[in-house]
Design a protein that fits this description.
Helices cover about 70% and strands about 5% of the residues. It is mostly helical.
């Protein structure tokens, strides 16, 4: 009886059979990641676009905690790892002269790595593949691209001139958020990145 009900209502359970990422949370995280990746390049150069980018990143981090935190222990660890990254991002936003990007990039790398590990474990331990597991796997891929863009931004901040971009306006050695994102996914998808 319970097996028949599980097959008829695949989204009625709050978490996967192994206690991994919640199906609903995975879908929400995927939607939030999609919005972040679609909107951020569009608002990067507009006035107050950095506020929109910071808000969207905050939502991505919050939904990542919810997706990872199916159990109380995982939720607490994810929330504790997210807090310095989120606080650092907002401190850097309001006072970039006092707080450099490393203040949030290093905690964001640690938090992102934890999210990737937990979501990947959730995918690998799933007893069956359903929509929630597929969304979780896509979230792993997208979060890997996001985390590597943080790593590239950190490298560019610690060692200026590490990256050179051949943009239409001429070569530039400044690695901004979108260029780091582009480089990260160009590398991850093996599409090539001869222009950076």
């Amino acid at each position: 009886m319970s097996r028949e009900r599980e097959e008829l209502e695949p989204f009625s359970t709050p978490s996967s059979p192994t206690g991994g990422a919640s199906q609903y949370s995975s879908v929400r995280l995927l939607i939030t990641l999609g919005l972040f990746f679609l909107v951020t390049p569009l608002v990067e150069k507009v006035p107050r676009g950095d506020v929109i980018e910071a808000l969207l990143l905050s939502f991505v981090f919050l939904f990542a905690v919810l997706a990872v935190g199916a159990g109380r222990r995982k939720f607490i660890i994810a929330a504790l790892l997210m807090t310095p990254a989120l606080v650092g991002k907002w401190f850097n936003h309001f006072r970039p002269d006092l707080f450099g990007p490393a203040l949030y990039l290093i905690p964001a790398l640690i938090f992102g790595s934890y999210v990737i590990l937990q979501l990947q474990l959730s995918v690998m331990q799933a007893r069956r593949v359903d929509t929630g597991i597929l969304c979780t796997a896509i979230c792993v891929y997208l979060f890997m691209g996001l985390v590597w863009s943080f790593a590239y931004l950190l490298e560019a901040g610690l060692h200026p001139g590490s990256f050179t971009s051949n943009s239409p306006g001429g070569p530039t050695a400044v690695l901004d958020g979108f260029t780091a994102f582009y480089f990260s996914f160009g590398t991850q998808s093996t599409a090539g990145f001869g222009d950076i």
